[in-house]
Design brief:
two-stranded antiparallel ribbon, 12 helices, mainly alpha
Length: about 260
């Protein structure tokens, strides 16, 4: 198997290649926040745009710019490379929402494919290293929100039997359950993607025995409470029926690292 970190580098290189063709571009925007020099720089060669203006592409609402979709598309290699290297300093949910607002699914097929290839390579590289520059939960938050699904990405996780992947799994459950509430988890700054159904089915099935006993107990308790609330007609129906009623039993301890391939 090709080294996952080399795959990631190749995916980043392909991204640069697919977005490298210069196209005439003229940008205008909010003159209260930006001057003529800023618009001139943002309209020019992408590699000459200062980092602070690259970040501004994400932090400002799209209506700030005369052509947000065009601006974001030409900045995509800079933005995504910085995200992968943890040099972007923008919340994952904001990045995901801006990618969606840029209409990435309508871009030319080679560019869409390059972005999708980066999602695959990024997640695989993270799952082979712990700690990683970007937590797996943060990367997955972006990837799931912009693609509108968790399943293919969770399948990659299921197939990655490394100690690093298991430690990222424990962190993900801690963050998404303890901090956010996994019973009704929505990803993206505008809650674009409802992650609970796919995530719950995955946790109850493919990776259940890779969780620690404490996390199994916490999740089982949450699912039982949701099931009881639904049975009594209380609360929002966050989980589909086939998920709510199937609460896993306590299992043997997770596989030890000595039984996992690196």
């Amino acid at each position: 198997m090709t080294d996952p970190f080399q795959q990631l580098q190749s995916a980043l290189d392909l991204l640069d290649e697919q977005f490298s063709s210069p196209e005439p571009f003229t940008l205008r925007g909010c003159t209260h926040c930006y001057g003529e020099k800023d618009f001139e720089v943002l309209s020019g060669p992408v590699d000459l745009v200062p980092d602070d203006l690259v970040v501004a592409t994400l932090l400002e609402v799209p209506s700030h710019w005369s052509d947000f979709a065009g601006l974001f598309r030409r900045m995509t290699p800079r933005i995504l490379r910085a995200a992968v290297m943890e040099e972007l300093h923008v919340f994952p949910d904001v990045l995901a929402t801006r990618i969606l607002e840029a209409g990435w699914q309508q871009w030319p097929a080679p560019q869409r494919d390059a972005v999708t290839g980066l999602w695959h390579a990024w997640l695989r590289a993270i799952l082979h290293q712990y700690p990683s520059s970007v937590p797996a939960s943060a990367a997955l938050e972006v990837i799931a929100a912009v693609t509108g699904t968790l399943k293919p990405w969770l399948d990659i996780w299921s197939d990655t039997l490394t100690p690093a992947a298991d430690r990222h799994l424990a962190d993900l459950v801690d963050r998404w359950n303890s901090e956010w509430g996994m019973e009704d988890l929505r990803l993206g700054a505008m809650d674009e993607f409802h992650a609970t159904p796919e995530l719950t089915a995955w946790l109850q099935g493919a990776v259940w025995n890779r969780l620690g006993r404490t996390q199994q107990d916490e999740l089982s308790r949450m699912w039982r409470i949701l099931a009881e609330s639904a049975a009594n007609g209380r609360g929002r129906q966050a989980l589909p029926d086939h998920v709510r009623v199937a609460v896993p039993q306590r299992s043997s301890p997770p596989l030890s690292s000595s039984r996992l391939r690196s």
